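Incident review: delayed structure delivery

Summary: a single-chain prediction request sat in the queue longer than the usual turnaround. Root cause was a stuck worker, restarted by the on-call engineer. No data loss occurred. The affected request and its eventual output are reproduced below so the record is complete for anyone auditing the incident later.

Affected input:
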Amino acid sequence: MKDVCVICKKETVYDRTDHIDFRYGYVEGAGQLCPDCFEPKYKRSIAIPVELILDNPNDCDLGHKVRKLYTKK
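Output delivered after worker restart:
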């Protein structure tokens, strides 16, 4: 089964069982990104409040909240 991009939900070239050290575009705490989302044409950065990081010791929960901030327009 192929992994999907955590931002746009497109299928990636990686199987879910592929080790993350051998993947391009994998972000620990967030997940796999496709090349378009990993290197967008118009790069965008966000600032993450320290409290958000400290209050969410679970990487999965933190990743979800960071993605939500990133995709918020």
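Verification: The CA atoms of residues 49 and 66 lie 10 Å apart.
Action items: add queue-age alerting; document worker restart procedure.
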